[in-house]
Amino acid sequence: MRLWTIGCLCGLVVVAACVKADKPAADGSAATQDSSAKKESAKAVVPKKDVDAKAAAAKRPPNPALSADEIADGWVQLFDGETLFGWKPNSDVNWSVADGVITADKGTKPGLLLTSVPFADYELRCDFWMAKGGNSGVFLRTPTVPTDPGVDCYELNICDTHPQGFNTASFVKRQKPTKEVSGEEAWKTFHVRAEGSRVVVKLDGEEVLDFTDKTDKPLTSGFIGLQMNSGLVKFRNVFVKPLGLKNLFNAKDLTGWREVPGSKSKFEVVDGAIHVTNGQGYWESEATFANFVLQAQVKTNGDALNSGIFFRGLPGKEGAYPGYEFQIQNGIKNGDRTQPADFGTGAIFRRQAARFVVSNDREWTTLTLVASGPTFATWVNGIPITVWTDERKPHPTGNAREGLRLEAGHLSLQGHDPTTNLDFRNLRAVELP
User: Fold this and answer.
1) Rounded Cα gap, residues 99 and 314, in angstroms
2) CB atoms near residue 26 (< 10 Å)
3) How far is Cα of residue 304 from the mean position of the Cα atoms in its chain?
4) Measured between alpha carbons, how far is 399 from 310 in angstroms, rounded to an integer?
């Protein structure tokens, strides 16, 4: 990234409403009407302790819902437990969040709440609750607006009274479960493993569906969607773990990577990690990626040190910024994690700041990036941080720093400046179909 100070960031703004108290009468008396007005005013005043609590909550990221081991293993939260960030509806269904739960019960027509980016092979865990007589589902590898669950998506049904008998735990129009189960009036958990043409589903730990798509066009990738068809439905603890990622670093040497000419940084393997000092400089992957999932771990060995992972980059050359940048920088302003000092770890540098900084210097941080067409989504330590769509026109140079780039490009690890001192490990990626 550039070395000058960023003077202004787009962040979260907290607006506090103040209620002006009535001025007492000069003689100290209080007419009935004035007294009534004062009572109404008093009701409108928010207690200071509540204001302070809300202000404190606004300055912290959502609480992590995954264990440290799960995060290191590649799991991420699709639902942050507090907002619908990272989701997009395809209808007017009244999706909302309260007490760590996504709920919906009304809409002019059935609708989906969809992930912002697609996934191909993955494990999915999801808790659900449905009212008696309701109709819902979890859609896998779906387009934004599916038209036929027997053709363009896998609809994992939540409905105990389906007219064609594809009840809870069925793939609608494809396969029924191995046993009859209920999805009504109790919290239950789906655990899905979608890998290639095979999808295995467990309900509350018991396998209930083992489906292999033997059609001429098995589905390979698509969005994950939560459905409200009829009745009250609730979802919580929605997690995904991308599968099929291949190691980009063998933990022994820098095979598969090459130095960019003119680099001043030193890249070496120390204790199974790529140790980077000095800068500016880059090492780039020999492989190229267009639409992909990337996961990596990074540790900054100093205060607010700066680095990044560049992607869809042109072959590196001295002095060039090689593509989009997945930012690494843990500094914050005013002790407020919603105010990144320099876009923040998980940002798309110069394009979209991190919602908040969840990572800490001198600790291993797990990064996840999904790049699909012009849209990029990032997670840091399993928490969703950024979703950004590049709406610029392509630049004649093909450099993503200057304009939209959809073509495959190299990954690059950055040594930012002479203070650089950081480590990378567990670098892995997979192309999306």
Assistant:
1) 46
2) 6
3) 23
4) 11
CA distance 64 to 76: 10
CATH code of the domain occupying 246-431: 2.60.120.560
* Exposure of 323 in the CB half-sphere (CA atoms within 13 A): 29
Closest by CA position to 329, among listed 428, 268, 416, 387: 416
Outline where DSSP puts E strands in 180-262: 188-195, 198-203, 206-212, 223-230, 233-242, 246-247, 257-259
Cβ proximity of 227 and 136 under 8 Å: yes
Question: For 361-381, how does the pLDDT look when each residue is reduced to its tens digit (9 = 90+)?
Answer: 999 999 999 999 999 999 999
Task: Tell me the pLDDT tens digit for each residue of 305-355.
Answer: 999 999 999 998 776 778 999 999 999 999 999 999 999 999 999 999 999
List the chain domain ranges: 68-242, 246-431
**Torsions phi, psi of 170, nearest 5?**
-85, 155
Report the Cα 20 to chain-centroid distance in Å: 41
The set of residues, in sequence order, having a beta carbon less than 8 Å from that of 226 and lying 6+ positions away, is: 102, 112, 113, 126, 136, 138, 139, 233, 235, 238
Chain-centroid distance, C-alpha 185? 29
Both tokens of 130, joined, read 């449905």
Whole-prediction pTM value?
A: 0.87
Q: Which of 82, 86, 80 shows the shortest CA–CA distance to 383?
A: 80
The verdict on domain 68-242 having CATH code 2.60.120.560 is yes
| Strand pairing category for 198-203 and 246-247 | unpaired
Alpha carbon 252 to its chain centroid, in Å, reads 31
Rounded to 10 degrees, what is the CA torsion of 257, 2, 401, 347? Answer: 80
Tokens 């698509």, residue located:
222
**b/e for 358-377, b at 16 or more Cβ within 10 A?**
bbebeebbbbbbbbbeeebb
- C-alpha to C-alpha distance for 225 and 158, rounded to whole angstroms: 13
32 by Cβ neighbours in 10 Å (0-12 / 13-18 / 19+) ranks as: exposed
Report whether 79 contacts 393 (CB < 8 A): no
Rounded CA-CA distance 346/357 in Å is 8
Q: Are 158 and 233 in contact (CB under 8 A)?
A: yes
Non-local (6+) Cβ contacts of 362 within 8 A are 299, 300, 301, 302
Domains 68-242 and 246-431 share a fold: yes
CA distance 290 to 2: 25
